[in-house]
């Protein structure tokens, strides 16, 4: 096993996923914001709201197109770089991906086309319905992707077949309603709403600082601050739910988030800040907040959160038990041609939950049954992830999350009770804050995915076993190709967004008013519902 291939494949998938995720949250949030603005336009008939809808909709369209382009390559990588993973768990992982393509992607793309090209062909209410269908389809797309990812974090509804050597789906219901997947979905979608709200807020603030498009900017701030405040509060509440699920299903990740080297007496304290030291297994200059981690991870004051000392010892025991499962699996494979004794399969079932831990030994030896005691201990130690990236990513994410609440509260108060008058310092702050949500969501991705290592599917399939049979040169070449392509796409995205932001709305309110009169005249009475 060439570990250069493993690390390069991980780097390629991580870089493409992080880049793709630059577009996802803005697409999720802008789709809803645009639908809200169009709803106000249809309800009031005021041209300014149609102008706002079309302007922010054009930015949504640019972001949507780039998101699709970068998302397609993500799925190709499962066949290119992760062939054994696709073979091993494709029956389960492929189902939500297929539904994402059939139900969400095609529906989303269809309605996006209708929205952009249907202004002159649909009634106002018909076009509004399309706007909301775009928002629903966009969020459905995220749902199926996160169901697939949630299964990797908490593999439920599946069973290993010792004859075919593959995981098989036994309960699609359990996969769809996996608590980890549902918590990830609502948390991710809420983060997208915050991202779009901060973006709209920042661009609108820039217009006010420049003295341009004043009415559009003020109303956009009113919508963004209200929607963003609801989203930011939801992120905190739903993030707590996600933390609880992590504490129940991914104890090693929870220990890494907290840098909990040793099991503490209940209730565990939360480390506000500190410097985790992997080598010495301690955290220097740590500042603790009593009880908080116990409440997040267990929702009680009496349950412990296990530390790395306890979890690593548990992993060692699971590796040893997994060796029994592996030995039984090899016996089953020897008899597949002549018929497998049901008693052998029944005995395997008693140990199969730890088979993945035996696979960890393949990093050091081809036949795990020949592993030495030192190799078994090293495999158990490998289940402890590198702590400092997870520890700091979590705290950056949380710190930014609370800053978004304060930002939205302030602008919502000024928009609602100060006649939409905003001081210059607040407007400049809003502009500076535009990149912050992307930093927060990327940190969240690092916590979720890096914290799962060394597993591709937690407790089932190690990352080192999941790669394709490729050379370092082949993976390095595709990595360089993706880097160049994505760099070019990033330049295109930023260039187009800045161009349309500088340009502003494509027409003014007077032109919008004239268009509305002509549009009503063109539509037949049967198409235009009485207003």
TrEMBL record:
GO terms for biological process: aerobic electron transport chain. The keyword RNA-binding does not apply. GO terms for cellular component: cytochrome complex; plasma membrane. It is a multi-pass membrane protein. It comes from the Bacteria. The lineage of its organism: Bacteria, Pseudomonadati, Pseudomonadota, Alphaproteobacteria, Rhodobacterales. Keywords: Cell inner membrane, Cell membrane, Electron transport, Heme, Iron, Membrane, Metal-binding, Transmembrane, Transmembrane helix, Transport. The keyword Metal-binding applies. InterPro entries: Cyt-d_ubiquinol_oxidase_su_1. It comes from Paracoccus sulfuroxidans. It is found in: Cell inner membrane. GO terms for molecular function: electron transfer activity; heme binding; metal ion binding; oxidoreductase activity, acting on diphenols and related substances as donors, oxygen as acceptor. This is Cytochrome d ubiquinol oxidase subunit I. Belongs to the cytochrome ubiquinol oxidase subunit 1 family. The chain crosses the membrane at residues 20-43, 55-72, 92-117, 129-152, 190-209, 221-239, 392-413, 425-448, 475-496.
């Amino acid at each position: 096993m060439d570990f250069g291939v493993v690390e390069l494949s991980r780097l390629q998938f991580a870089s493409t996923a992080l880049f793709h995720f630059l577009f996802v949250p803005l697409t999720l949030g802008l789709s809803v914001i645009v639908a809200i603005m169009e709803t106000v336009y249809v309800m009031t008939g005021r041209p300014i709201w149609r102008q706002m809808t079309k302007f922010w909709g054009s930015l949504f369209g640019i972001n949507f197109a780039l998101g699709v382009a970068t998302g397609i390559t993500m799925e190709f990588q499962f066949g290119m770089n992760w062939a054994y993973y696709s073979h091993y768990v494709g029956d389960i992982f492929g189902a939500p991906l297929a539904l994402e393509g059939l139900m969400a992607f095609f529906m989303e793309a269809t309605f996006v086309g209708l929205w952009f090209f249907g202004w002159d062909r649909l009634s106002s209410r018909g076009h509004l319905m399309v706007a909301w269908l775009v928002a629903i389809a966009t969020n459905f797309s995220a749902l199926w992707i996160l169901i697939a990812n949630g299964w990797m974090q908490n593999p439920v509804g599946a069973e290993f077949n010792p004859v075919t050597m593959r995981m098989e789906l036994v309960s699609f219901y359990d996969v769809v309603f996996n608590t980890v997947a549902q918590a990830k979905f609502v948390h991710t979608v809420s983060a997208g709403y915050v991202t779009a709200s901060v973006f709209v807020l920042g661009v609108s603030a820039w217009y006010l600082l420049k003295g341009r498009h004043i009415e559009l900017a003020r109303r956009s701030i009113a919508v963004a601050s209200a929607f963003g405040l609801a989203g930011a509060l939801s992120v905190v509440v739903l993030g707590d739910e996600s933390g609880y699920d992590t504490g129940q299903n991914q104890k090693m990740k929870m220990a890494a988030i907290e840098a909990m080297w040793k099991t503490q007496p209940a209730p565990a304290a939360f480390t506000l800040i500190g410097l985790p030291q992997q080598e010495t297994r301690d955290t220097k200059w740590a500042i603790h907040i009593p009880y908080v981690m116990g409440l997040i991870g267990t929702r009680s004051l009496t349950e412990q959160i296990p530390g790395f000392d306890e979890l690593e010892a548990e992993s060692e025991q699971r590796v040893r038990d997994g060796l029994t499962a592996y030995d039984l699996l090899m016996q089953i494979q020897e008899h597949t041609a002549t018929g497998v004794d049901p008693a052998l399969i029944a005995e395997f079932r008693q140990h199969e939950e730890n088979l993945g831990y035996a696979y960890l030994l393949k990093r050091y030896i081809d036949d795990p049954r020949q592993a030495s005691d030192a190799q078994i201990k090293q495999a158990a130690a490998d289940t402890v992830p590198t702590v400092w990236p997870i520890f700091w990513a979590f705290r950056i994410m949380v710190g930014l999350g609370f800053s978004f609440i304060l930002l939205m509260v302030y602008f919502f108060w000024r928009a609602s009770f100060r006649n939409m008058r905003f001081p210059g310092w607040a407007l400049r702050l809003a502009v500076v804050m535009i990149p912050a949500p992307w930093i927060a969501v990327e940190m969240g991705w690092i916590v979720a995915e890096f914290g799962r290592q060394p597993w591709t599917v937690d407790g089932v399939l190690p990352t080192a076993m999941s790669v394709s049979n490729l050379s370092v040169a082949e993976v390095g070449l595709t990595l360089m190709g993706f880097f160049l392509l994505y760099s070019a796409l990033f330049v295109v995205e930023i260039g187009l967004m800045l161009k349309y932001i500088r340009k502003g709305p494509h027409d003014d309110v007077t032109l919008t008013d004239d268009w509305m009169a002509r549009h009503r005249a063109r539509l037949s009475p049967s198409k235009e519902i009485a207003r």
